[in-house]
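Structure (tokenized):
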């Protein structure tokens, strides 16, 4: 069984790595369409439309203009999500997403300023291997 440390992951906007990532999440889902007929004794379903969304949290870095700075509210961006790293053979997901929300948080004087981004995928999320 392969295991991977969280520190191996990264996210890119296009080919630009997002700076100061703390964590990210990608959710994939599929709707179900009921196909039960009157003679059925159990409900039946088929797969419907698929969708994906997620979130990304970073230490805020105003100098990261091509990563964090490219993810403005309402922007449509190509996200490349690398859970296990971005070296040859590593698996990654790619898709177009709309940035739906941005939250900047300043905790107390012993914590860093963070930026959290949420996104909604548009069209399919595609998985492949880094070449």
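Design, position by position:
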């Amino acid at each position: 069984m392969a295991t991977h440390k969280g520190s191996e992951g990264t996210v890119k906007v296009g080919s630009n790595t997002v700076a100061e990532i703390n964590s990210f999440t990608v959710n994939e889902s599929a709707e179900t369409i009921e196909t039960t007929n009157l003679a059925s004794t159990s409900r039946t379903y088929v797969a419907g439309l698929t969708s994906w969304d997620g979130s990304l949290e970073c230490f805020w870095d105003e100098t990261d203009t091509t990563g964090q700075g490219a993810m403005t509210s309402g922007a449509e961006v190509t996200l490349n999500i690398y859970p296990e790293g971005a070296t040859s053979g590593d698996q990654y997901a790619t898709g177009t997403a709309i940035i739906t929300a941005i939250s900047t948080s300043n905790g107390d004087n012993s914590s860093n300023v963070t930026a959290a981004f949420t996104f909604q995928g548009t069209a399919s999320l595609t998985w492949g291997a880094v070449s």
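Reviewer-requested clarification: The chain has one domain: 6-129. The longest strand covers residues 113-129.
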